[in-house]
């Protein structure tokens, strides 16, 4: 058996890909990861959820103008979204879905909120979140969209503490 005793693994160009601390914990300082949040603090109905406030963007994968992540490398990504949605009419539904290359992904998880048998003036609302491992090829784009269906006008609250989208490369 061979033992490799190093603290850092670097590319020949000098970029650190992996560090190991004295307790054996691994750090991946260049690992692709992003997280963005909403900013207008209002109920909105836009399909492409605007998330301009960027908290993390290692690898420059997330674009805060298009609200899309572009995979810089082929791999599996753990992605998540959280959204505060509301519906206020019988038969109304709200949902949030992942889109790859601007195409809705029906085979992936989605957030759903549906109202039925509401009293006059009633509403259903709440914070929901989901996560999904998604295989992406280099250059694929990923974003989240909101959809309203039914008899009313479902919406979501696009505040910093109520809407976010992020993820990271698993490998």
Concise structural overview:
By secondary structure, the protein is mainly β. It has no helices and 16 strands.
What does this structure look like?
- Strand 7 (62-63) and strand 8 form a beta hairpin.
- The chain contains no helices and 16 strands.
- It has strands spanning 8-10, 16-20, 26-27, 33-37, 43-44, 53-58, 62-63, 68-70, 75-87, 93-100, 103-104, 110-114, 124-136, 141-149, 155-157, 163-169.
- It has 171 residues and is mostly beta strands.
- The relative contact order is 0.28.
- Strands 4, 5, 6, 9, 13, 15 and 16 form a seven-stranded antiparallel β-sheet that branches.
What key phrases describe this protein's structure?
7-stranded antiparallel β-sheet; 171 residues; 0% helix; 6-stranded antiparallel β-sheet; single chain; 16 strands; mainly beta; elongated
- Helix share, percent: under 10%
Give the low-pLDDT segments: none
DSSP helical segment count: 0
The SS-based structural class is: mainly beta
Strand content: over 45%
- Categorize the overall geometry: elongated
The arrangement of helices and strands along the chain is: EEEEEEEEEEEEEEEE
Q: What's the story with the biggest beta sheet?
A: 7 strands, antiparallel
Question: Tally of extended strands?
Answer: 16
Average pLDDT score: 88
> Radius of gyration, Cα only, in angstroms?
20 Å
Terminus-to-terminus distance = 26 Å
List the helices and strands and how they pair.
Blueprint: E1 8-10, E2 16-20, E3 26-27, E4 33-37, E5 43-44, E6 53-58, E7 62-63, E8 68-70, E9 75-87, E10 93-100, E11 103-104, E12 110-114, E13 124-136, E14 141-149, E15 155-157, E16 163-169
Antiparallel strand pairs: 1-2, 2-3, 4-6, 4-16, 5-15, 7-8, 8-14, 9-13, 9-15, 9-16, 10-11, 10-12, 10-14
